[in-house]
TrEMBL record:
Region listing for Disordered, in residue ranges: 24-55
Keywords assigned by UniProt, alphabetized: Signal
Organism field: Algoriphagus limi
Amino acid composition bias (Low complexity), ranges on this chain: 30-39
Protein name: DUF2911 domain-containing protein
Signal recorded as keyword: yes
Signal peptide stretch: 1-24
InterPro entries: DUF2911
Record-linked Pfam families: DUF2911 (PF11138)
PROSITE patterns named in the record: PROKAR_LIPOPROTEIN
């Protein structure tokens, strides 16, 4: 009789363990399906997500942005208006990540993640903005000037050749933004 009382709780414990195990495998399968969907969505984005990592002055640096294409459109002053905050990319906000403090155009910037915005101008220097709210799903639509950490002025350069897709590369003098005929070098040390 005592063996019977021990057998029933053991059977109940085993059935609970087995049912939890199957839920975990279902959850894992669901997570895998979600990851595959995310990868599939990534491939179908009109403006692919780009991540660039490298060193600036021997310090790790990362930039992540949506890379739109020109597609025959008028970019400056039209698709990207002058004198208005631009998310400097497409989709979610572009962000940079510094593992150590650096300087941007001579101004100190502490280690951390920052969204990158610009204010394009028809003539003269452009304003480059680094904002503490870096994880903005809708880019400049959620931009809050009160969260600006740094604003600097940078001189754009205009090139003869046109670049179809926006790129932000880690190169001298820090990072360089290129799109259409624009080249915007931002000094970072």
């Amino acid at each position: 009789m005592k063996k019977r009382y021990l057998f029933v709780p053991a059977l109940v414990a085993l059935s609970v363990f087995v049912s939890c195990g199957s839920k975990n495998s279902e959850t894992t399968e669901e997570n895998s399906a979600t990851e595959m969907t995310t990868e599939s969505e990534q491939e179908s984005r009109p403006s692919p997500l780009e991540v660039k990592e490298g060193d600036i002055s021997g310090k790790p640096f990362k930039v992540q942005y949506g890379s739109p294409s020109v597609k025959g459109r008028q970019i400056w002053g039209d698709l990207v208006p002058y004198n208005v905050v631009w998310r400097t990319g497409a989709n979610e906000a572009t962000f940079i990540e510094l593992s150590e403090g650096m300087t941007v155009e001579g101004q100190p910037l502490a280690a951390g993640k920052y969204s990158l915005f610009t204010i394009p101008k028809e003539n003269g220097d452009w304003t480059v903005i680094l904002n503490s709210e870096w994880d903005l799903e809708h880019g400049h639509f959620q931009y809050d000037e009160k969260q600006d950490v740094l604003r600097v002025e940078v001189s754009p350069e205009w090139e003869e050749s046109s670049q179809e897709r926006l790129s932000i590369d880690i190169e001298e003098p820090g990072i360089v933004i290129r799109w259409e005929k624009l080249k915007l070098p931002i000094q970072i040390q």
